[in-house]
Amino acid sequence: MSKLDVKMDKAADKLTVQMAGTIDEDVDFSQFNLSGNQQIDVELAGVKSINSCGIREWIKWMGTAGPAKITFSNCPKVIVDQINMVDGFLPSSGKVNSFFVPYYNDESGAEKNVLFRYGTEYTDSSVTPPEAVKDEEGNDMEMDVIEAKYFKFIKK
Amino acid sequence: MSEAKSKILILEDDESVGLALKEILSRAGHSVHLATRPDDASAHLLSNNIEFIFCDCLLPQMTGLDFIERTRQNNPNMRFKVILMSGVYTDKSFIQEATQKAQALAFLRKPFEMDQVLKLVKKEDTSKREESNARKLLYQMFQNPKVTNRQKRKVIESIEEVSGFDLPFLYSLLVETKSSGYLNIYNSDGSVSGISFCNGNIVGVDVDDKTTFLGEMLIQSGYATPADVQHALRDKNNRRIGNYLIQNNQLSPHAFDVILMEQMNIRLVRTIVDEKIRVNFASAEVEMTNPSIDADALSAYLHDWIASKLSLTWLKSLYRMWTGDVIAKSPTFTDDHPALNMSMIRSLDGLLSKIDGDMTIMRLLDIKGYSETAVYKAIHFLLTKGLIVFAQKAAFESPEVQLKALKKIWADLEGKNGFEIVSYMESGSMSSGSLESVLEEFLTLLGPEPEDGKSEVATLWTRIKKDAEDAILIAQDSNKASQFRQEAQRSEAENKLKAASMMEDAKKALQYMQYPKAITMVGEIAKLNSTQAQLYLYSSWAKLGVAGTADATRRIALIKEVELEVMQVPPDERYDALYPFVMGLLQKNRGDMVGARKQIEKAVAMDPSFMPARRELSTLSAANKKQDVFNMDLKEVIGGFFKKK
């Protein structure tokens, strides 16, 4: 049984797809039709993990969207990693609207995901992280990714 | 490796700001040059490997942005990071535009806090160090038995590329540290493979190649008869072959689980290739399924993979970093650890007692009776199982030891051109960074400059250092370097093609029983492509053919060689008719005719058109007719005893 919840909401020429769970070999994207839309917004905040079978299925599925403009929103780290590593994971007509960046504090061990939005924290060619990110106790947190690798897709 | 302190250039016409910045950065241990004019800065840039430029936006001869732009245009190979500074241009849109144009790390609005400057350089230094040491850090992960998921993820993430030969270590690390999640492997051809882990068990292996080997494995293992398998393949009506056999009581469910585990093993083997790959591990809740590979089962597979898949050349390049370091037992080492009983460890007499806190790879290689291959493979198995670690120690305790190490390096470098020397340095490098960091890492292997400048060790040290530095200079010419790489790739591809075509000729020679000719051909193929598929099997077939007519001493020597070769046959080459055929020939040469016949029967069942196996089977049957009491029925055996001679 698939561990992925997919909700599709079609309004006029725009399709909104909301996803939560795991994208793996059990997922059957063929039941979610992407064709015939001008604009597709994929909201990914709830995606917990994706394995190699899921990656292959995803690329096939995205290929069925045709010339639609696709945007990915609220991408968790697992999705950003695939966008950076796998050609075609983000379709050529696709764009990332927003994505999460993990932050960490060495002393307290606190972890936090900070949302980076297009036009605010990043543009097509540059990243301007928030000046300070604090944990619940007010301690400074540092970005917990290798920036050159994690932000690679922005400068692709 | 020494702390990586940076070379910094400050271009600032306001002397008070420049001097304050220089002082604070120098105090932090960086090498800093202050220039007040662009021409002075340019001269300094050309003669030093500058890593950071702190550049004021408003300068006497030109703007800071123009200076950066012109420097990049004139020196496309120069790699430096830019930090812009200004007290005049401070509006947001200018800052954004300038940062983008200069590809700057940051823009400092004057006056700025000096702490901010130090943080900026420290952060970049840390990431540089993490990147250059990432692979080394990976191999040292077992030093900390309580390594967290985050630490594992960080180390794996910091590696830009690994070799497919690094994967056994990664699998072992994720199993031994009870990981759950997905390891995705991105191959150079764009395909993606993946391994699923559940609490330290491998529960799924997904590779692009869907060959199942199921029928072959059932026959090879003896769990099902060739007839049953053939029947199942014909009649299964889309049901899985295993389920068909289980439902017809021709296979036990437990035996089928064993076969499925072996199938996972073969798929894992497919990922262990001598190619650059990228990996990504994400922790996730993964369901436990059966069958699965746990740490004990993985030990056997690791042993097998290291013996059969990892090349000596690759192992030597990996361990170059640790040749002078002491091998120490890790916190998880116990004298009764089952892995210590495996043949690779037992084949080196007294190996474990020699790991006494003072042993290095270099010394192990000097022990009489220890072969180079056996030492590297045994040490790699122990490291992969997390039973040993490398403890850093002053690499050379005497000039004699340093000279010996340098002679080994020189033997590898002698006769090589600049590009080949760089490839050599890169192959042993843990760094995926610039050529400079590859050189820096390589030079640490040479040890400190010998004090007595006229000694043999000093002469050799200087010579190697010079050759390495010259090679890097040549390789920095990007056009020539890419031309060399293309040439090398073409020559490798040609060799592979030639080897593949020679394999066909060797096969013909073997079919015509021209064994000495086949031995020569296989030797030539090994020189062209040492990883040619089925090389060991063809070589063993040829040697066993020669052994059949050789005298006793020669036959024993040949059998020993073949025993070593069949150990190195990778698991995914064992499910072809050739493997049981060669094993049958080996048993025949050892005098075990019953075992030989069983193996060759398996070969014929797997490939009925394999003529040499059919011929061998008839020869064996004819020869065994009079003596094979184990395969006759009782009436024949008793009749045979009372037969008139």
Write the layout of secondary structure elements.
The complex is a heterodimer of chains A (156) and B (645).
Chain A lengths: L3 E8 L2 E10 L15 E12 L1 H12 L5 E5 L3 H9 L8 E3 L1 E7 L6 E7 L24 E2 L3 H4 L6
Chain B lengths: L6 E5 L3 H13 L3 E5 L2 H10 L4 E5 L7 H11 L6 E6 L5 H10 L4 E4 L4 H26 L9 H10 L3 E2 L3 H10 L4 E6 L5 E7 L2 E6 L7 H8 L4 H10 L5 H7 L5 H19 L4 E8 L11 H14 L3 H8 L6 E4 L13 H4 L4 H4 L6 H6 L5 H13 L3 E4 L7 H15 L4 H10 L7 H11 L10 H20 L2 H34 L3 H14 L6 H13 L4 H16 L10 H13 L2 H14 L4 H14 L9 H9 L3
Parallel strand pairs in B: 1-2, 1-3, 3-4, 4-5
Antiparallel strand pairs in B: 6-10, 7-8, 7-10, 8-9, 11-12
Task: Tell me what the structure shows.
- The complex is a heterodimer of chains A (156) and B (645).
- Chain A has one domain (4-155).
- Helix content of chain A is 16%, strand content 35%.
- Chain A has helices at 52-63, 77-85, 147-150, and strands spanning 4-11, 14-23, 39-50, 69-73, 94-96, 98-104, 111-117, 142-143.
- Chain A has a five-stranded mixed β-sheet, with helices on one face. A three-stranded antiparallel β-sheet of chain A has the order 7-6-8, with no helix packed on it.
- The longest helix of chain A has 12 residues, at 52-63.
- With 645 residues, chain B is an alpha/beta fold.
- Chain B has five domains: 7-127, 3-Layer(aba) Sandwich (Rossmann fold); 151-307, no CATH class; 312-366 and 379-394, no CATH class; 395-476, no CATH class; 497-614, Tetratricopeptide repeat domain (Serine Threonine Protein Phosphatase 5, Tetratricopeptide repeat, Alpha Horseshoe), CATH 1.25.40.
- Chain B is built from 29 helices and twelve strands.
- Chain B has a five-stranded parallel β-sheet with strand order 2-1-3-4-5, sandwiched between helices. In chain B, strands 6-10-7-8-9 form a five-stranded antiparallel β-sheet.
- In chain B, strand 1, helix 1 and strand 2 form a beta-alpha-beta unit.
- In chain B, helix 8 packs antiparallel against helix 27, helix 22 runs parallel beside helix 24 and helix 27 (593-606) packs antiparallel against helix 28 (611-624).
- The model of chain B has no long low-confidence stretch (mean pLDDT 84).
- Chain A binds chain B through residues 22, 25, 48-53, 55-56, 77-78, 81-82, 85-87, 104, 123, 125-126, 128, 144-149, and chain B through 96, 99-100, 127, 130-131, 150, 154, 157-158, 160, 181-182, 184-186, 190, 192-194, 196, 204, 206, 278, 280, 282, 284-285.
